[in-house]
Amino acid sequence: MKLKFAILLLLLSSISCENLLLAQTISKDELIFLTSEWKGERFADGRPKIPDNLLERAKHIMIDDAWTVLKNEGYLNQFEGGWKTVNNTPMTGRALTAMYLPSRPDVEKNIKARGAKEGRKGNTNSWPIDVLVKGDLYVADAYGKISGGSIMGATLANSIYSKSGNGVVFNGAARDLTEIGNIKGFNAFVRDFHPSFVEEMVLMGLNTPIRIGTALVLPGDLVIATSEGVLFVPAHMAEQVVTTSEFVIRKDQFGFEMVRTGKYSTGEIDSQWTDVMKTDFLKWLEKHPELGKMTREELEKVMSKRTW
């Protein structure tokens, strides 16, 4: 009996993974190709799996610093502003992407028929939610539609938060603002809120490249959403962006103290450091464990790329 039960679980797991792959509009090989710079762990569908500890560290950096790191590396189309939000709760997570298009009867019929064969339930705007996992951040291009473009209400918002522990970034609308605001820890970055239900829209891409305003977003990107806007960090750049941004916070705190005490000038702080300054910084950092640790090797590496 135990053996039969184990075999049944294995079969169900295989069916679930197959459904996840069928739901993609690009193949696993194509997704790996598009994110080939990523050398770390991946999900079963090929999406880069940025480590949880890096997601947590990203919550404490400044989006301005992260943007600067990307800009210096030539990534110029990764930020989008102009959002309406539920509250001031910042969010970080791995992008799970969805692309919506205006509905067309024949296309929607075929999409829904295929979804039914895959075991999918409800309207297509609920399908991305079914594949969310902890640490994901649901990012959707709903082509800026407001009236009839509310691809999420309070019920879906609760489901999103329970599955991912995160909120959403929608180039579109949401409804039920008051009720969504009662979900502690949840936030939504949307173009607007509107009382209408979703209509004349269909899901055309799941875990596929999408455009959010002027930004290109790939599945698995590190999403940093703050009151200033949303930054989409390519997965292979996440470690460098977070590490460098952490250093900038430490450097600023060190600099403030050194300038106040007169030990170093602002010009010295904002230039390449001497060996003596680097030693002073590391000694200072040991006295501030709340800012984290840093080795001399790590300091040399980040300073070698310094252009700020």
Give a short summary of the structure:
With 308 residues, this protein is an alpha/beta fold.
Question: How would you characterize this protein structure?
Answer:
The protein has 308 residues and is an alpha/beta fold. It folds into two domains: 81-233, 3-Layer(bba) Sandwich (Glucose Oxidase, domain 1); 239-304, no CATH class. The chain contains twelve helices and 13 strands. The chain has helices at residues 2-22, 28-34, 52-58, 63-72, 105-117, 127-130, 154-164, 177-180, 238-261, 266-269, 275-286, 296-304, and strands spanning 79-80, 84-85, 91-102, 136-141, 168-171, 173-174, 188-190, 192-193, 201-206, 210-212, 215-217, 222-226, 229-233. The strands form three sheets. Strands 1, 2, 3, 4, 5, 7, 9, 12 and 13 form a nine-stranded mixed sheet that branches. The protein has a two-stranded parallel sheet with strand order 6-8. It has a two-stranded antiparallel sheet with strand order 10-11. Strand 12 and strand 13 form a beta hairpin. Helix 4 crosses helix 9. The longest helix is centred in the last third of the chain and has 24 residues, at 238-261. The chain is elongated.
Poorly predicted segments? 1-24
* Principal-axes shape call: elongated
Helix count equals: 12
Order of helices and strands: HHHHEEEHHEHEEHEEEEEEEHHHH
